[in-house]
């Protein structure tokens, strides 16, 4: 059985017909030739297929494409701005947070999600105090990135990369807030 | 040194901390791996696997599958193309005999992945099952000595009289250690896109060697090599399991030949990888050490029992590192195999050294404890002047320096050797050490071409980058050999359109391909001087290194681990790992560090998590996915630090580099096991170190 859906992917809109058994991951990879999300297990066990749907990280192999009608999907390819990498990607390059690269697009999307989750104050399993904002400690980052397996064993560098990206995002947020305050003061 | 095979380069680009050339395509996911190679309207292939571990296929009913919408063809042993091979693993669909559970007994090709999967489900196979035998034990009557162990080492060796040494020594240790069955599990499953145009075959395959894969395919299908092209610019990890072709590439090629003019995609599922992609054999290692009161070894012996498959022999060289690691006049090593009804074992990161440095390095720790000698000191006392095995001097051996430097950085001096004494908030804390070793390997048959193209130096060689950094590091070598800026060098690898290159295995890539690149650069300069015309071109090949006749060549390392064991639950955490290595000159510190910490991370995973559980009733690995075959996750890893010593070895190759892809995993598990013992007083001799092995003793 087939069904027609509309998908927004990395800024493009696609109308496509999918078999109702088709996963979002296969729809992206096989039908749209969007191969940035990878298939490592097809069972939600490795994280290689992680994409952002509406800004939240999702395992594309666990979503049936038919249920994703109207979704806005961002892959690691879409996070970059043309030739310039997203800050998370820059941090992965700076810290050599990958080797074979197969888990990497999923790690990058996951890390982008973690940044937002931390900024929104979401706690994790290792957050000791649920009443305060979680700090972006290495333990917090490692816990939150634990759903993305890396067989090359780049974890140490992945945590360092996410730390760098968090720091950068925090600095930016502080600068923006300062500018806003300055702007208000001028008014 | 005037020998051209080792005449040293002046390192300029070599040694610099350059970002990976393939970095941007990898962090964006725009690097296309084998399954993702461009294809207009590909067909999809899915496999049918045997549900018995031994027996014979009586009949196959393919009617329902063939009737399914979108299914193009079904192939089984009854109608598959015949192949020319005596390789029992690759002879897929060639016979109705079933040699292991999960063996491919059919394939379905369809217009869509969904139809292919459904079609494979609909194929009905009837078997005459036969009793199977899948259990490895030491007491089996049919254990045999293989002719050689991987790749061509003597099966058994004996020097002096080990029994005499054991009978007369002050301190004797006689213990048995085991390592589990492990699956490589690269994150990218084995995958191929294949295309047959009626004349020539092109495969985009995830492989550690395009040229070796081409040679195998050409022979199997009876084609001239010129009619087979293998392409693989990126490999999503291999760790040995993509070093030799497995059946995926054969089946994809067979399928493509059945639908000429159409691309066919085939990828193993993660579950299939546990039956079809190779694995590391479990090992049983009986260790004997004989020492005097000061810890000097008179004798060292290892007797290894491990498995192979009836379908194809692979003999892991587990006993080999014991032959050269420590000074002991009396040495003995043996390997015995049980041939079982199981899938064929194969290479996995540091075959031989990785399992073969578990037993010996835990045994050294046990001996140190028994004699009241510091385990670092015990190793230092047994440092051999020359290679005990060959009698040759070392080209360089800095194990002691690694141990000392590591001890220093780790704060080893303050260590109280007594086990089971330190407790912090309910966690027992301890530290352990082990040595690492890996040989310097050089393979035959690699050639590089250097050409002047649009003012750039283009280097072509059919080498592979499995995440090892080849795209970047070979360019660094070429730049120094040509004496130009690395930015002027373009690399082209991963395609049989480029000159022949050996498999990425045995940590031999830089030595082998790097030497070819250096020779090509020297030939290029000799021919064309410093200002070469456009299209100027020269080739160079790897040569034998005569220094291997005069020196024993190895990289060494020392690994230190801290372990914390929960007193109540037995949970083990490793907050800190430190590795110090002496591996010659480091080509690129950034990618080198990643390789070393990557190896150590896999070693940590081996120590605490990994084991393939074979069900004796059915003959398959029951935990055949990433939810149940546990590999270390981000949250399992805390601090892992890799360092190296400045080491100048003019004998190994023109770069002075030794190969670092595998040494990182050697010794890690022993260091962790030794740390767990120091923390708890419990000696775990059977990997992995899971809480069930600790709890009874902790409770008591
Ligand atoms: S492919 Fe989706 S989690 Fe592994
Ligand atoms: S970089 Fe290879 S699996 Fe992560």
Automatic annotation (TrEMBL), chain A:
It holds the Pfam family Fer2_2. It comes from Actinophytocola xanthii. Gene3D superfamilies: 3.10.20.30, [2Fe-2S]-binding domain (1.10.150.120). Keywords: 2Fe-2S, Iron, Iron-sulfur, Metal-binding, Oxidoreductase. The keyword Transferase does not apply. Residues 3-79 form the 2Fe-2S ferredoxin-type domain. This is (2Fe-2S)-binding protein. InterPro entries: 2Fe-2S-bd, 2Fe-2S-bd_dom_sf, 2Fe-2S_ferredoxin-like_sf, 2Fe-2S_ferredoxin-type, 2Fe2S_fd_BS, Aldehyde_Oxdr_Iron-Sulfur, Beta-grasp_dom_sf. GO terms for molecular function: 2 iron, 2 sulfur cluster binding; metal ion binding; oxidoreductase activity, acting on the aldehyde or oxo group of donors. Pathway: Alkaloid degradation; nicotine degradation. It comes from the Bacteria.
UniProtKB/TrEMBL annotation, chain B:
The keyword Chaperone does not apply. Residues 28-131 form the Aldehyde oxidase/xanthine dehydrogenase a/b hammerhead domain. InterPro entries: Ald_Oxase/Xan_DH_a/b, Ald_Oxase/Xan_DH_a/b_sf, Ald_Oxase/xanthine_DH-like, AldOxase/xan_DH_MoCoBD1, AldOxase/xan_DH_MoCoBD2, AldOxase/xan_DH_Mopterin-bd_sf. Keywords: Molybdenum, Oxidoreductase. Coiled coil: none annotated. One of its GO terms (molecular function) is oxidoreductase activity. It comes from the Bacteria. This is Xanthine dehydrogenase.
């Amino acid at each position: 059985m087939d069904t027609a859906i509309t998908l927004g992917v990395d800024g493009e809109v696609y109308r496509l017909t999918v078999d109702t058994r088709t996963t979002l991951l296969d729809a992206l990879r096989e039908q749209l030739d969007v191969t940035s999300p990878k298939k490592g297990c097809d069972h939600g066990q490795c994280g290689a297929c992680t994409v952002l749907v509406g800004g939240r990280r999702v395992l594309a192999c666990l979503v049936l494409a038919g249920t994703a009608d109207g979704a806005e999907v961002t892959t690691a390819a879409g996070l970059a701005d043309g030739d310039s990498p997203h800050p998370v990607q820059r941090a992965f390059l700076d810290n050599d947070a990958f080797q074979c690269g197969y888990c990497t697009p999923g790690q990058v999307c996951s890390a982008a999600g973690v940044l937002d989750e931390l900024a929104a104050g979401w706690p994790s399993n290792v957050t000791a105090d649920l009443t305060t904002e979680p700090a972006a400690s290495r333990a917090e980052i490692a816990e939150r990135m634990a759903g993305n397996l890396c067989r090359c064993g780049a974890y140490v560098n992945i945590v360092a990369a996410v730390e760098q990206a968090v720091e950068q995002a925090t600095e930016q947020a502080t600068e923006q807030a300062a500018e806003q305050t300055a702007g208000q003061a001028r008014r | 040194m005037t020998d051209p095979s080792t005449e040293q380069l002046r390192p300029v680009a070599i040694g610099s901390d350059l970002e990976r050339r393939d970095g941007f395509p990898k962090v964006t996911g725009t690097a296309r791996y084998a399954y993702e190679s461009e294809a207009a309207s590909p067909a999809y292939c899915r496999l049918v696997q045997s549900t018995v571990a031994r027996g014979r296929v009586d009949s196959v009913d393919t009617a329902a599958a063939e009737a399914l919408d979108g299914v193009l063809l079904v192939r089984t042993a009854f109608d598959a193309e015949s192949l020319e091979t005596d390789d029992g693993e690759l002879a897929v669909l060639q016979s109705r005999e079933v040699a292991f559970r999960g063996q491919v007994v059919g394939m379905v090709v369809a217009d869509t992945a969904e139809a292919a999967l459904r079609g494979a489900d609909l194929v009905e196979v009837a078997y005459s099952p036969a009793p199977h035998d899948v259990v490895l034990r030491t007491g089996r009557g049919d254990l045999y000595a293989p002719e050689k162990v991987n790749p061509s080492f003597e099966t058994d060796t004996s020097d002096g009289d080990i029994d005499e040494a054991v009978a007369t020594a002050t301190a004797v240790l006689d213990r048995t250690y085991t390592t589990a069955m492990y699956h490589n599990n690269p994150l990218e499953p084995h995958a191929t896109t294949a295309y047959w145009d009626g004349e020539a075959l092109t495969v985009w395959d995830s492989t550690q060697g395009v040229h070796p894969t081409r040679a195998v395919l050409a022979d199997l299908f009876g084609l001239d090599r010129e009619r087979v092209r293998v392409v693989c610019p990126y490999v999503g990890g291999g760790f040995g399991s993509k070093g030799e072709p497995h059946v995926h590439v054969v089946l994809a090629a067979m399928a493509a030949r059945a639908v000429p003019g159409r691309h066919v995609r085939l990828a193993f599922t993660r579950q299939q990888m546990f039956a079809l992609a190779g694995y590391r054999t479990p090992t049983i290692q009986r260790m004997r050490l004989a020492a005097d009161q000061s810890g000097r070894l008179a004798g060292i012996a290892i007797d290894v029992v491990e498995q192979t498959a009836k379908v194809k022999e692979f003999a892991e060289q587990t006993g080999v590192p014991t032959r050269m690691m420590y000074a002991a006049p009396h040495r003995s090593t043996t390997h015995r195999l049980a041939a079982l009804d199981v899938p064929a074992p194969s290479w996995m990161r540091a075959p031989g050294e990785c399992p073969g440095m578990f037993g010996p390095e835990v045994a050294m720790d046990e001996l140190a404890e028994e004699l009241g000698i510091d385990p670092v000191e015990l190793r230092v006392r047994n440092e051999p002047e020359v290679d005990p095995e060959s009698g040759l001097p070392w080209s360089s051996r800095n194990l002691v320096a690694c141990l000392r430097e590591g001890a220093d950085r780790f704060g080893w001096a303050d260590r109280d050797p007594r086990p089971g004494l330190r407790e912090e908030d309910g966690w027992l804390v301890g530290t352990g050490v082990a040595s690492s070793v890996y040989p310097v390997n050089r393979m035959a048959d690699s050639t590089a071409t250097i050409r002047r193209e649009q003012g750039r130096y283009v280097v072509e060689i059919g080498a592979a980058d499995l995440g090892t950094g080849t795209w970047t590091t070979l360019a660094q070598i070429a730049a120094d050999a040509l004496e130009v800026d690395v930015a002027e060098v373009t690399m082209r690898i991963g395609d049989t359109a480029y000159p022949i290159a050996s498999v990425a295995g045995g940590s031999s890539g830089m030595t082998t391909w790097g030497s070819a690149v250096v020779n090509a650069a020297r030939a290029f300069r000799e021919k064309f001087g410093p200002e070469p015309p456009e299209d100027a071109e020269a080739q160079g090949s790897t040569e034998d290194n005569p220094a291997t006749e005069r020196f024993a060549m190895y990289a060494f390392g020392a690994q230190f681990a801290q372990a914390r064991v929960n007193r109540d639950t037995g949970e083990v955490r490793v907050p800190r790992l430190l590795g110090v290595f002496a591996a010659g000159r480091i080509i690129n510190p950034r990618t080198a560090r990643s390789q070393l910490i990557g190896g150590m991370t896999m070693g940590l995973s081996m120590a605490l998590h990994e084991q393939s559980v074979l069900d004796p009733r059915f003959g398959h690995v029951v935990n055949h996915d990433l939810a149940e075959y546990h590999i270390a996750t981000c949250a399992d890893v805390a601090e892992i630090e890799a360092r190296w010593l400045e080491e100048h070895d003019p004998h190994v190759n023109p770069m002075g580099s030794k190969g670092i892809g595998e040494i990182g995993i050697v010794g890690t598990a022993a260091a962790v096991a030794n740390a767990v013992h120091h923390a708890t007083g419990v000696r775990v001799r059977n990997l992995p170190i899971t809480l069930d092995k600790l709890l009874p003793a902790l409770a008591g």
